[in-house]
Amino acid sequence: MNELDERYTTSEEAIIDSFFILSSEKEFEKITVSDVVKKIRCCSQYLLQSL
């Protein structure tokens, strides 16, 4: 992947942010990929509505 591509950077930030949010809500061992994706969708919809 091209690390200079804005989509790559934005996606990476969303994944990391969602993981850290989830880590404050759940134990590390209980966090799934599905949880991260759901959190990304939730946060991105909120951000789009606020624009």
Describe this structure in words.
This protein is an all-alpha fold. The protein has one domain (6-50). Helix content is 75%, strand content 0%. It has 2 helices and no strands. Helix 1 (6-25) crosses helix 2 (33-50). The longest helix has 20 residues, at 6-25. It is elongated. It starts with 5 loop residues before the first helix and ends with a helix. The relative contact order is 0.13. The model has no long low-confidence stretch (mean pLDDT 80).
Low-confidence stretches: none
Beta content comes to under 5%
Tertiary shape: elongated
User: How would you state the average pLDDT, rounded?
Assistant: 80
- Secondary-structure element string: HH
**What is the number of domains?**
1
Short description:
The protein has 51 residues and is mostly helical. Helices cover 75% and strands 0% of the residues.
Task: Record keyword descriptors for this entry.
51 residues, mainly alpha
Q: Secondary-structure blueprint of this entry?
A:
Blueprint lengths: L5 H20 L7 H18 L1
Helix pairs in contact: 1-2
